[in-house]
Amino acid sequence: MLQTYLKVAWRSLKARLFYTSLNVLGLALAMGCCILLYVYVSYQLSFDTYHRHAATTYRIVNELHLDKTEYDKGSSMAMYLAARRELPQVVNGAYSTSRQSYIVTAGTTEKKLFREEKNIAFTNSKWFDVFNYQVLAGNVQGLNELNTAVLTQKQAQKYFGNTAAVGQYIQIKSIPMRVVAVVADRPYNTDQNSDIYLSFATLKQVDPYYKDFTSQWGYISSVNNSYLTLRKAEDKAVVEKMLNRMAKPYFGDGIKYYKFELLPLTEQHFDLRYGGTTQKSLLTVLVIIGCLILATAIINYINLVVAQQARRSAEIGTRKVLGATAGRLLMQFVTESVITTTVAAMLAMGLVATVLPVINRYWFSAQPVHVSSWWALGGFTLLLVAVINVVMGIYPAWWLNRFNITNALKKQATLVQTGLGRKALVILQNLIAQLLIAGTVIIVMQVQFLKNTDKGFDRSMVVNIPVGAATDLQKQRLLKGIAHMPDVSSVSFYLNSPATDSQRGATLQFDNRAKWENWPARFAIGDAGYAKTFGLQIIAGRNRDSHATTTEFLVNQKMARMLMGNNWPDVVGKKLQPGDPKGIIVGVVKDFNVHSLLEPIEPTVVLEDKGLQTNMAVKLNGQHTDATLKTLQRLYTETLPDEVFSYRFIDEQIANLYRAETLQQNLIWGAAAMAIVISALGLLGLVSLMTLQRTKEIGVRKVLGAGVSQIGLMLSADFLKLVGIALIVAIPGSWWLMNQWLQNYAYHIQIHWWVYALTGMLAMLIAFVTVGFQSFKAAMANPVNSLRSE
Amino acid sequence: MLSLKQVSKYYNTGSNKTYVLNKVDLDVDQGEFVSIMGPSGSGKSTLLNIIGMLDQPSEGYMYFLNEPVHQLKEKQRSALYKQNIGFVFQAYHLIDELTVYENIETPLLYQDVKSAERKALVADALDRFNIVGKKDLFPAQLSGGQQQLVGIARALISKPKLLLADEPTGNLNSKQGEEIMELFKKLNQEDKVTIIQVTHSEKNAQYGSRIINLLDGKIDSTVIL
Questions:
Q1: ipTM higher than 0.90?
Q2: A610 and A525 in one domain?
Q3: Beta-carbon separation of A319 and B95 below 8 A
Q4: Closest in A15, A328, A405 to B97, CB measured
Q5: Are B91 and A317 a contacting pair at CB < 8 A?
Q6: CATH H-level superfamily of B2-224
Q7: Are residues A479 and A440 part of one domain?
Q8: A210 burial type by CB count under 10 A (0-12 exposed, 13-18 middle, 19+ buried)
Q9: What is the pLDDT of residue A417?
Q10: CA atoms of A288 and A278, how far apart (whole Å)
Q11: Number of domains in chain A
Q12: What is the per-residue pLDDT across A676-687, written as a single tens digit (0 to 9) for each?
């Protein structure tokens, strides 16, 4: 019997090759989308779940409740040590100070300098106990000694080529460190992003700044990571309570602002407050989009099955007369859909294999997506095939059950009416496509807006060059050299440009007020050249003087207003103490965004902190850029022999802030394109069947004198009407949804009416092109032929 | 073999009932060859469909092989006709995607006949109707007469006790029609297959043993030949 099913299904699919191809293609595209989305979502969900005790390991984080709640993923080592010592619920733990940048000297015969950006961590062997690493050579226990290092394989290779790295030395700030072990490169699905692990005991030597580090409870910084493995997950609440209680004596009255919490290791990747990079809500949206695209393809299939009922009903009727039961007839339909979906699934796999490397390169370049398990992927695909077949089998099952043999076998096969159900399906399909089109237009506009809008500063032609721990003398020499370069218009030594993700700030005391203000100000740290280099506009007072003997500050207008209301220009000349330094406000600048446009303008102080000014911003005039950069490099290497020259335009740095949005834009763009293609395929199949069934009517109309264009329009209009109805439903839905999304941004575009005009026109155009060709072809047929064949 | 008592079929049109069949009584014995005649709309096809259990009467009783059909459930009814009734249609209703061989084999598949037995039965039928050479062709490659021959072979493959034919020669030219009628006669006389056919043609009706004339859903007259 099975053989017969297969044989018949194969023949009937072959006989209607055109429709079969449309179905296979549509399903393959949709399944390809679903598989890609599955790969993406499962990859994101697998982050840091592979560690031995991932389910019971937590990161200590804190909330700081000021006017606005601040979230910090860092914690002090003192608290970590106390928790390890005093809490019986804590069975294991690890601590590191990560994201450190240094110039590393290494090499086998010839020593070379390497600039390592934020991939150095100080820790001990416990780290490799809590987190899973594969030790390739040596022993990580060596990390508990002074001046030792553990390298990842990639890093070892970079430094020592194929020579065994264990036993070799690397140097940081002239301190030699022995490599005691090499571990395998970190897997793709982890947020622990260090490549060089230095023994914790070395930290104080490398950076004297850290001398009271292990005992200071207040030393909380986002680069300090404490992880605790608990006896069981239920202990979380108790441990959190204990942490807050233990901290109390060390924070005194200040404790009321703090709340220490445990963030599950597996949540770390998703909690944007604590440096997570992927929103779970994005994953949910992706799953929904995947389902919608799949629905579009399934609707195509069902629509074509329904439209072909007329042709098939005689066959089904005959089979029933010959003794077939409804179950067996259903099997025939199911066999066809199983063959169709299986072929589609294979195509989809091929599609994914081809497309994944491409989108990894262009869309996910910052964080390529990897298949976490091929077995799971295979299982998912099978499940997908099964689900699709069940859904696609529902309609035939319902139809076969209420099937009337005598009607089906009437001598003239009756035309199936264009049922309400099918119209609804076409509308639904178009609705999905149009929601995605409108979404794409709006997201693209918003991302362009985010990337290209500067609030109160000018980023163009500003280059960032890290200078590390350059001394004052070296900085003076750089300035002197640059003064002779005609194409550089200004220079500044600074820490953070406007529009960065770095967070620095403090609460402050103003003028002679007794109380400190209860809100914190953000810091933009740079020398006197900062305002000019980044094009900040001074609207009251003057810029800071580089030769001033007292400390001078600039504040932004927002802060001036918060301090003095409408008399804001009067802040000039008043005293200010933001955090530690004391000085005088000398000028007010127009508001500029310190962070990304996701956040509103915050009160900001522009101030100097020589120790932190580890970058140099150079504003070029846009002429001879390459030559100027070469000259800069020469000057740099002469002046700073222990540093490595590198540069980056601020532009790119800002674009990086909106990586998540860019990714969303690409994903929805791709989804919209898919939905359009799939629904167009469906329309194509449907219209060609409809015109086939209306051949006689078209012939009669022509004989009665209808013109080609009248008939072509009549046939197209049926479908365009449906597209129009979909648009009417899409407008309010999309307007609401997209406004919800735009609320995430402090600065966002307005949705204009023409977005929907554009969407509607695009959808109409696509439908018309798809439907029009078939319609006019049918309209042009000679009525003699169509009427004779009856 | 077959007995209809006061069988009616009507449709509700608004508040009125439109009768297609009106209190028809009919008995058919084993081995008969009955022709049903009448003008268009007199209820011939409906009567045939009710006899074939493809359609149900609105009122009345029907017994087939002593089974009260009007009391049977859908499943039992279809089991009954599957085993005992063969159908021949005016439009042949061969399945386009199946070859001649496979078309004839289909009823056996639905009755779960074993593969070896199926082969033997189909080979027999092909031989008997002289269509061995056509067994691998598709319906579209055959003439109308040949298609109807396949249709009859298919109807007879499971050795039904009753053959129902709805204008079996309606789509054929007169020569092909005659051949089909000769075949029916032979089947009736030599193989003892009971046949009920619906026909428009006086000439074709003459092949049978009894002619029933329908008019407006009632039996107008019966002619024994």
A1: no
A2: yes
A3: yes
A4: A15
A5: no
A6: P-loop containing nucleotide triphosphate hydrolases (3.40.50.300)
A7: no
A8: middle
A9: 52
A10: 16
A11: 3
A12: 899 889 888 888
